[in-house]
Every structure is written in C-alpha cells, then in structure tokens.
Amino acid sequence: xxxxxxxxxxxxxxxxxxxxxxxxxxxKKEFTFTGYFGIDKLVQDKKYxxxxxxxSISLSMCRFYVSNMKLLKDDVEWGRMEYKxxxxxxxxxxxxxIPHYSRNGVNAVRFYLGIDSVRNVAGVGSGDLDPxxxxxWSWQSGYINMKLEGNSKLCSKSKNEFQYHxxxxxxxxxxxxxxxxxxxxxxSYNIKVDVEQFFSxxxxxxxxxxxxxxxxxxxxxxxxxxxFSIAE
Length: 232
Description:
Structural class: alpha+beta
Largest sheet: 9 strands, mixed
Radius of gyration: 22 Å
Number of helices: 4
C-alpha cells in the first residue's frame, strides 16, 4: 500500500515542480539611456544652440545615478534594479536589462535620479557606488547625484565654464528626484535624456557653479528630472 501511494503522489509532485520552475523564469526589458540636445544626438564638446537662452552650450560631462528602477504594471512592482551610474559619453554604461515576473507585461518604469538617504548614510559602496567613480563628496555630504559640466558664453562671470554637481540627501537639501515614464508594448526602450530641457529652465548667468548640497542644488535637480522621456 505504501509503495502504491508513492506511485500516485509522484506524478502530482512532478506537475507541481514543473509549474513552479516555469513561473520563476523571468522575462526582461532592455533600457538604453541616450543623450540629446533637443532633436540632435548629444556629442561631447559639440556646441548646440539653445533657443530659450539665445546662445550656444557645449557639454564635456554628463553623468548621473539612476536608483531603485522599478518595472510596474498598474502601479504594482514586478522587477527592480538598485543602482546604476550612467555616463552619456560612455556607451558601456548606458544600457541595462531588468528582469520581471509579470505574466501580463508592464506599463511603466519608475526610478530615482540620484542616491537615496538610506544608501548615503550606509557609507561608501562598491561597483558603481565606489568613490573612485568620482561621484562622491564625503561621508557628511554623500553621493553626487548628477554632474553636468561644459562651456557657454552665458557663464561670462566664470570664464564661460559651468559646473553643476547636484546632490544632497538631508532635509532641507534632499535633491533626490522621482521620475516615472509610461511604457508601450515592447521588449526594448530608449530613454531620451534631453539636456536642453535642463538648460532652458536654468539661469546660467545667475548660477554657473553648484558644488555642494544646497537649496539651489534641489532647484536644479527638479530641472534635471524634466530631461527624461521615452523616445518614439
């Protein structure tokens, strides 16, 4: 009788095992961050005309952290990536795959521009969070969320140079910004990073340098959060 019960249970266990292993096999979405200045692809040190400011702007650096990047289906989380350092002038850093477990697909991606307070107070990290990446101030000020550097005649007070090192995690200087983008059906997406959206909102004549946590860094971080969209 005992052996007969074992024989009957074996197919049931086999079915359960098969169902479970097929369910844990994740799908994935591929994302690539691509720099633009308006409709033009962003090229390092190339001059671009900014109509909103009436002068040209060139960028030598555009780096930023993306953190807690989540794939959503009707506001329910189905996949996540923790921290990624993007350098728009280094294509080896701009692409990522995010696995997810939604059988019905996902319809949005949500992420933070910058590093949250929990990670900051935990001290320095490794990989993309290693201080040797040049995106860390100190234990007191924490990580730099974004670096934008370049030249423009709009910055006449600073020899035409601008440096925006934006960060800060402690109130009232918490510069972390939430970005959410809707997704159509597909497996790969190009996230457009239009830096013209930042410069058209920023008074470069008044402020050409931000190098530490401050209310101005928070203000400019809000401007930076407007740069992201899904390219058609």
